Request: fold
Amino acid sequence: MTELNIESKMHPLNKAGLTLLVSLFGFVLVGPLIGFFFALPFSDGNLMDQLDKLANPVSYPEFRLPLYIMQGCATLIGLALLPALLSYIIDRKGLIAFFTESKNYGLMLVVIFVMTISFMVTDSVFINWNANLHFPEFMGGFESWARDYEERAEDLTKYLTAFTSRGEFALAFVVIAILPAIGEELVFRGMLQTHLLRATKNPHVAIWVSAILFSAFHLQFFGFVPRMLLGALFGYLYYWSGSLLMPAFAHFVNNGFSVVMLYLHQKNVVTMDVESTDVVAPWPVIVLSTLITAGLLYYYKTFLDSKRIADGR
Reply:
């Protein structure tokens, strides 16, 4: 009874702040630390050798597997397990409860699949624009730092996706596509967006603030806008359905499609490099993909509204 009283007195903004703190603590410190020790048996050398490799992993191709393990633990622990535990403590809501509203909505997964692919085409315009954005002269120092950070992040991404076997591809698919789809959506949509909605009573504010924080979390300033738009799309998918399955599936499709296309590109099956910020579809295709995305979003919302009315909710 005391726990329920404490829970009811905690302001939603405090819950939102606590969610961010716990997630960052788990993702930046606890998860990677646990992953580091799990990865030790899979890398040669002593403890200091591993720390040296960790400081500059792209110079050590053999360190890719340990880095997959560390990244996977960071996401699993920092963005899934610890936030899920926090959610249960402050809201008495476990991880499974976020997905229970998705019964009989199988058709929507097909809609979301097509919608996500079409949105990726539209988003390529913003990816190209944001990647070539230049800051005012007085922010030149920040731009230099940000571009340097972006280049290092790009090098790390290329390193992690330079698959040498099907096993590496499968492991990367889990670490890059599956785990973030669950963990990031739990934190930014399931928890943060919900707390902000309760605090502001405005779904659009909650969705867009969560999307901004979601993009900022990745610390890639020259990809900030397209990732924010993607986060907003996920936010509306969650708000209209009430089930985390919907945005998590969209997130999975977005990341998974990119990983598969990278793998096929390396195998010379496809010529398009999805990681290139210079790849922009022709304008007629952009317009068509935007119309498809908008039309499917409208269908998604009206279907769920009618389903909710039919169910008496």
User: Anything to note?
Assistant: Residues 2-310 form one domain. The longest helix spans residues 166-200.
